[in-house]
Design goal:
Chain B: One of its GO terms (molecular function) is nickel cation binding. The complex is a heterodimer. Chain A is α/β, with parallel strands linked by helices. Chain A is built from seven helices and seven strands. Chain A has a single domain, classed as Rossmann fold (3-Layer(aba) Sandwich). In chain B, helix 1 runs parallel beside helix 8 and helix 8 runs antiparallel to helix 9. Chain B is globular and about 50 Å long. The chains are: A alpha/beta, B mainly alpha.
């Protein structure tokens, strides 16, 4: 058993876009559906962050299926050019839990060019926040255009930051063509079902 | 001296930060030196890395690498495992051991998998050896056996040891291998320092240039050391490495 024997879902996106919030929403839903889940968080910075992360899944996942991986201040390298330390962490998961179904790999916050190495993630989500600006999809960063699923999060903030969700929707449809995108408000859980449907259909049932 | 292209290109490849073995995640305690404001400028950095070279890279990792290279070239698995075991024993901080064994496993996995394609592509090619002491061995069996031992958790698989095995199989001399490893160790630490502190790119290159003579000196001094001489004496670096396990801020795995 090793990293090639388990489904791997990457979550990338800029700092503060809601990647961690989405992971926290997805894990209980996946566990509820009887999947055995592992979680890797890149660049959690401090031991305190690591403890908070483990505590948030304490009732859902064994502690040894939650791991932090430091990427030496190179978050994109860790998920793209050289994912070896993430793969090593997944290998440890599968060694201890051969029945593992899926691993969620949360990237450190990065820029719009960050994409996941296909050997690290079978499927990757790129999470952006409406609060980062209405023009994010229009910039056509590789993360936005190449992700398997674009997640536009924090829709509840749109009226407070003068963002028109219709503009984001039109731009996302233009730059992504046939590829899907969803709107979410991870704080309240809105739209998370849509993310789950894509992940289940494209990764877990594939 | 005749340049052997395969060996030369292997040295470049193994010394390059482009090599995907996770080297960019290791600082071997350097992050903690910076966390504790113990490094102010390029001179401090040069002095610290000089100490790493003289007390860790030379008497410990170079000795391990060189002996692993020799054991591998001789096809002696038992000797190779003994080198790996000793390096594990003399590497004190847990995070140093983890960074080294994780990178070692990845290097082994990477180069073992492409050695099979290399063998099929290079059939019939005969390279001219330079004046090194490296025997012309394809290393196939010993590399595979060592990889299997790592995979089965029978040996830790430290990076310098795997490096020695790989370079022996690809025709680098022991000294060339030690130089390539020491150089990449130094550039790894300098890269970590630049990402963590505020060092200019020309300043970092000046430090690297100033360290070249030390890299050469420690490799030449320790390349022929017996495995029993392998030792590390860098108490402060080790303490920094151990404190890093509980650091308030950590961007690196060690």
């Amino acid at each position: 058993m090793g990293y090639r024997d388990v489904a791997k879902v990457g979550l990338g996106g800029p700092v503060g876009s809601g990647k961690t919030a989405l992971v926290r929403r997805l894990v209980p839903e996946l566990v509820e559906r009887d999947y055995e889940v592992g979680v890797i968080a890149n660049d959690i910075m401090t031991q305190e962050d690591a403890d908070v992360f483990r505590e948030s899944f304490a009732d859902l996942l064994p502690a040894d299926l939650v791991e932090g991986v430091e990427t030496g201040a190179c978050p994109h390298t860790g998920i793209r050019e050289d994912p070896s330390m993430n793969l090593a962490a997944i290998d440890e998961f599968t060694e201890r839990h051969p029945e593992l179904d899926v691993v969620l790999i949360e990237s450190g916050g990065d820029n719009l060019a960050a994409t996941f190495n296909p050997e690290l993630a079978d499927y990757f989500l790129f999470v952006i926040s409406v609060a980062e600006g209405e023009d994010i999809p229009r910039k056509r960063g590789p993360g936005v255009t190449q992700a398997d699923l674009l997640v536009v999060n924090k829709t509840d903030l749109a009226p407070h930051v003068d963002v028109d969700l219709d503009v984001i929707e039109d731009d996302a449809a233009t730059v992504r063509g046939e590829d899907p995108f969803v709107f979410t408000n991870c704080k309240d859980g809105e739209g998370v079902d849509g993310v789950l449907k894509h992940v289940e259909r494209e990764v877990l049932f594939a | 001296m005749t340049t052997e292209p395969t060996a030369f290109l292997t040295a470049l490849r193994l010394s390059d930060s482009f090599l995907p073995v996770g080297g960019y995640t290791a600082s071997y305690g350097l992050e903690q030196y910076l966390n504790e404001d113990r490094i102010e400028d390029g001179d401090d950095l040069r002095e610290l890395i000089t100490a790493y070279l003289q007390r860790v890279v030379g008497p410990c990792e170079t000795v391990a690498l060189s002996n692993a290279h020799a054991a591998s070239a001789a096809g002696d698995l038992e000797r190779l495992l003994a080198v790996d075991e000793r390096l594990h024993a003399v590497t004190m901080p847990r995070e140093f051991r983890e960074s080294s064994t994780k990178a070692g496993a990845k290097l082994c996995e990477l180069l073992e998998s492409d050695s099979s394609s290399r063998d099929s592509n290079a059939s019939g090619t005969q390279h001219v050896q330079d004046n090194s002491s490296t025997p012309a061995t394809d290393g196939g069996d010993i590399v595979a056996d060592f990889a299997a031992a790592i995979e089965a958790d029978e040996t830790p698989g430290h990076y310098p040891v795997v490096f020695g095995v790989v370079t022996a199989a690809r025709g680098l001399s022991r000294l060339e291998s030690c130089l390539a490893h020491a150089h990449s160790f130094v550039t790894g630490l300098l890269g970590a320092a630049q990402r963590l502190g505020r060092f200019g790119h020309t300043e970092i290159q000046s430090v690297l240039e100033a360290l070249e003579s030390e890299i050469t000196a420690v490799c030449e001094r320790h390349v022929d050391d017996d495995v029993a001489a392998m030792a590390s004496f860098a108490p402060l670096a080790e303490i920094m490495g151990m404190r890093h396990e509980h650091a308030g801020r950590r961007l690196f795995m060690s």
